[in-house]
Amino acid sequence: MTESNKATNSLPIHAVSTALPSQTSPHNPKTNDAFDRHNKPRLRRDILLSALSTTYPTTTTFHIPPSLTCDLLDLYSRIHDVNMIRFLSTAWSEWKTMGETRGHYEECCHPQWTKTEEEPLPPLIPCHAALRNCPNERPSTNVMGAMGYYCTDTLTPIVGSLVRELQEDATIVGHAVQWALREDTTVVYAVTTHPGHHANRDNFGGYCYLNNAALCARLMQWQLETGKCIVGEDGGIVSNYWGRDNDSSSNSSNKKKKKCRVAIIDVDYHCGNGTASIFYSDPSVFFTSIHCDPAIEYPFNQGYADQTGSEEGEGTTLHIPLAPGATWDGAYKEALEKAMKAIVEFDVAGLVVSLGLDTYEGDSVAVNRAGFKLSGNDYYEMGLLMGKCMMGKNIPTVFVQEGGYKMDVVGVAAAKVVGGYATGAAGGE
């Protein structure tokens, strides 16, 4: 039985992005800009939308927010350090003002990602690394110095279109949350351009700038607690959204009430270290990540099984590191069952899935002699398993796009996971 036939017994799927499948152009080099030989975020986005449309044409509805601009500082102020958000918002204009005609380590990425005939300016890449454990370190007022302070690698450059795309991604997440809460018997897929799960409170890297999954969880929490919509009547993102907890409709007892519980499950090949750090001491957010052992693979310094949370959040982080070569039947299915069991026991009111697809066999981002070996229908089974665990619970669920770099399979894999979840949550097979 094909996935399209299975979809007759499934929840509806809502996909939110910057374009409709008919408007994407996967073979147009002007839209297939690459950061490096692995990371092609725009191409991936187009492929994902096209595959979802092809695989589930009758059960998927595609949405483009009427306005794709928002205030990054306002939205992410409860996720990230405000100075880092300001840096990301102004770095390109400051870099442009400096008038540098060559970038540092240009071989690490493709300068032509933003290069035009009128403006042949290379991307901004760190030229040094901050001593993060030194109490005397602080971000420089020089944009090159600040880049080295906030960015953790040379693979995550600042480019001319970045602010616009980050605004688009944040808007997509906001609308995805709105759809999920409006119709809790549905599955929503936020098809963002950039991943976010490696973005920490005050640093970014690993192709990630701002943490979309963390924003999704916080917006879902806040709207469930207060009933205040993130999307206004005009279809735009509400300004000063968080600040509205100080208005006359919110009293002090309301502010002190216990937070609504949500969970985030990260199925990317790499540990979602940024998301884990953001919620590490937060008892209201359960975070679990299934990933390659960080003793072998990026991000190397986080994602170990004994890292289970701190302070009031002790026990609300579940890292499940797997050895390289993990297969669906060999280790991954058991790990996913463990993660989902923990989520169900946490008694959540909302679920966020950080959907990374670099677990596919042969994905190019894995270090030598590493990588997982999931393929084909394993991804449908992954979604089906997660969906069955949530069956009958009417839990608002949002999938947020993370990594995935094997472009010939990434679209079909994504469609299988999302479609499998929609089927499993509806009680189908």
UniProtKB/TrEMBL annotation:
Compositional bias ranges of the Polar residues kind: 1-11, 19-31
Keywords carried by this UniProt record: Hydrolase, Metal-binding, Zinc
Cofactor(s) demanded: Zn(2+)
Highest taxon, organism lineage: Eukaryota
PANTHER family: HISTONE DEACETYLASE 8, HISTONE DEACETYLASE HDAC1-RELATED
Record carries keyword Signal: no
Name recorded for this polypeptide: Histone deacetylase domain-containing protein
Chain intervals for the UniProt region annotation (Disordered): 1-39
Family annotation (InterPro entries): His_deacetylse_dom (IPR023801), His_deacetylse_dom_sf (IPR037138), Ureohydrolase_dom_sf (IPR023696)
Family listed: Belongs to the histone deacetylase family.
Molecular function (Gene Ontology), one example: hydrolase activity
Record carries keyword Metal-binding: yes
Residue ranges of every copy of the Histone deacetylase domain listed in the record: 77-223, 256-418
Signal peptide residues on this chain, from the entry's feature table: none
